[in-house]
Amino acid sequence: MFMWKVLDKIEEYLCAGMLSVMAALTFANVLVRYLTNASLAFTEELVVNLFVWVTMFGGAIAFRKGAHLGVSVLTNMFPTRLQKAVVILSAVCGVALFAILFKEGVGLVSQEYKNQMTTYSMGLPMWWFGLAVPTGALICLLRVVWAATNELRSLSQDK
């Protein structure tokens, strides 16, 4: 349980921090454009790459809070046994999706690392930003299993 609480806080603080940095960079870029007709090219690149990280961590947070898309209006009308089947099917699909995303993300990162790809304006290694995909997929995979387990437990207690 302690591990989950630590992961909860890490996800939230990282998202909040990255969103703050994204907002500050975007504001600075707009301000510079307005005052000088110039652009801070690196800010656009950094904001787009941070957006991928925020999206992956945000997805994990959504699974943890049960805020992912669902058709609960329909499934709530099902008998408990069928509701459990839907939860299991949903979890299997989620695990499959994030396992594929993890595998493809690892391939992406290894190619970026092997080819020594760098970002255009900052010259930073692209694999730093590419790591968002396999890292986020792994966390989302854990969260899908965690959410499904909790939902099945809750359905069993509702009997």
Characterise the protein shown here:
By secondary structure, the chain is mainly alpha-helical. The chain has one domain. It contains 6 helices and no strands. The longest helix has 35 residues. The chain is elongated.
Topology:
Elements: H1 2-36, H2 41-65, H3 72-75, H4 80-114, H5 126-130, H6 132-157
Helix pairs in contact: 1-2, 2-6, 4-6
Summarize the structure.
The protein has six helices and no strands.
Distance between the termini: 25 Å
Please report the number of helical segments: 6
Biggest pleated-sheet summary: none
What Rg is obtained from the alpha carbons, in whole angstroms? Answer: 20 Å
> Can you write the helix and strand succession as a string?
HHHHHH
The proportion of residues forming helix, as a percent range, comes to over 70%
What is the subunit arrangement here? single chain
Q: List the domain count as a whole number.
A: 1
| Beta-strand segment tally | 0
| Uncertain stretches | none
User: What overall geometry do the principal axes of the alpha carbons give?
Assistant: elongated
Helix-and-strand structural type: mainly alpha
* Overall pLDDT: 89
Strand portion: under 5%
